[in-house]
Amino acid sequence: MFGLTVSRTADPGGNNLTGRMLVEKPGQGYLRQLAASMPAGELTNPDNRGTFTYYGDSETRSNPCKSNSEAANQGGRVKTVRGPKNSDG
Asked: What is the distance, to the nearest Å, from the Cα of residue 12 to the centroid of all Cα atoms in its chain?
């Protein structure tokens, strides 16, 4: 409906490996990616997916590399990215 990619299939040798993505719903954000899973992962299982969190519309942060810097509006930029847990846990 909005042309958002919610899955990608790679086919090396006919394996049909499909990774999936979860995005914000219309009216609940900017349609940004919230989570992603690799082909072997399960999107609904927090251990098997990566997640993305974002700054709020008017949330600000100072430059950590420059002391006493003025806080700048982050305007919904990516705040944290966490990958899925590896096989070691």
From this structure: 25
At residue 84, the 3 state secondary structure works out as coil
| Model pLDDT for residues 22-60, shown as the tens digit of each residue | 999 988 889 999 999 988 888 888 888 999 999 999 999
pLDDT digits (tens, 9 = 90+) for 65-86: 999 999 999 999 999 999 988 8
Q: What is the pTM of this model?
A: 0.78
DSSP-assigned letter for residue 58: T
Q: How far apart are CA 48 and CA 16, in angstroms?
A: 19
Q: Which residues pair with 50 in a beta bridge?
A: 36
What sign has the CA pseudo-torsion 74, 76, 78, 83?
positive
**H or E element: which one contains 33?**
strand 33-37
At 27, list the tokens.
Answer: 């009216």
How far from chain centre, in Å, is Cα 9? 18
CA nearest 49: which of 63, 35, 39? 35
